Automatic annotation (TrEMBL):
TM region(s), chain numbering: none
Gene3D superfamilies: tt1808, chain A
Taxon lineage: Bacteria, Bacillati, Bacillota, Clostridia, Eubacteriales
Keywords of this entry: Endonuclease, Hydrolase, Nuclease
GO molecular function, one term: endonuclease activity
Name the UniProt record assigns to this protein: Uma2 family endonuclease
All residue ranges annotated as the Putative restriction endonuclease domain in the record: 11-172
């Protein structure tokens, strides 16, 4: 007997309860995550502060979670932090992001680590997200994947004493240590 598993969509996700859990649809599969821990949230706060400076300089807009990104009917993600460059702001609606943002940041948690390092790397590259940042609060590192014609190329991991410069906002370097205050 074959087991038939349901295929979830953006419409199904909209019907999920507001129960403090994070719901995403990845390749039609429903992914549920518990509320994040203190280290995770501190990193998200520092990332948001960094991207607010980038926003204030006129490069685009930052959106911390919870804010859905609808990549297609069967792929809806809720990154920890995302950034949309000024020339792509037409994908931003009051309810969500309709298409790939320019930068997506995920902060690793025990419950999301495998997903963030696995399916999301391939998913984000496939949909054309220009940079995917992965912050590891336990090891205090930042890995950056930059999209090229051949897919994502990894840069890093950057450690606490290193600085990251994105070609998307080169005048705003990020000192990795600031993420772990």
């Amino acid at each position: 007997m074959d087991i038939i598993r349901p295929i979830f969509s953006a419409e199904d996700l909209a019907q999920m309860p507001d129960d403090g859990k994070r719901y995403e649809v990845l390749e039609g599969d429903l992914a549920v995550s518990p509320s994040p821990n203190r280290k995770h949230q501190r990193c998200v706060l520092q990332l948001t502060r960094f991207f607010e400076k980038v926003e204030d300089a006129g490069y685009g807009q930052v959106f911390p979670a919870p804010f859905d990104v609808i990549l297609d009917h069967h792929n809806v993600v809720e990154p920890d932090v995302l950034f949309v460059c000024q020339d792509h702001l037409d994908i931003v609606t009051d309810a969500n992001i309709q298409g790939p943002p320019d930068v997506v940041v995920e902060v690793l948690s025990p419950s999301t680590r495998d997903r963030d390092l696995g399916v999301k790397v391939h998913l984000y590259a496939r949909f054309g997200i220009r940079e995917y940042w992965i912050v590891d609060p336990d090891n205090q590192t930042l890995m950056v994947y930059r999209l090229t014609a051949d897919g994502y190329q990894p840069w890093g991991p950057y450690t606490r004493d290193e600085t990251v410069i994105s070609p998307l906002f080169p005048a705003h370097p990020l000192t990795v240590a600031t993420l772990f205050r």
